[in-house]
């Protein structure tokens, strides 16, 4: 099955200028929600890593599999092989449309070490709280970036304190984080070995 990219859709029928801005916004919101829908039967059929990779690339994010240096961004180019062969080690959501309803795909990931949440308009506190609540991610995630996600507040950042293996956290351009000193202090108290890099106004 081939999946049309959002860019391809925008360049075709759905980009007609006769659409109102509200109509376009509603259409893309609906389409993004469809892309984020969790298919439990698909997860059972192909395994959590493959299903998560399909979700992420469908939404414009990238994945890196264990043992590979290259980031995969093409839904139709995801590697195939025996069930469970490819394990997700990194996620880069830069400029993607991943949203909270799709984060259930992360539940079965056992090898995820790096998460980049950059310029993702649907990322909110609930997404970070979900990441922090998943036991396998609490043990595996080593590095995180949260950059230019306008819906993230102190509450969401503090929720990352449950990621007990987290070694490095980069935070930048987060206007919703208003009490950065207190937030950083709470994280450092919970995770004394965490290296936090800030670029917050």
Automatic annotation (TrEMBL):
The lineage of its organism: Eukaryota, Metazoa, Chordata, Craniata, Vertebrata. This is Mitochondrial ATP synthase regulatory component factor B. SUPFAM superfamilies: RNI-like. It comes from the Eukaryota.
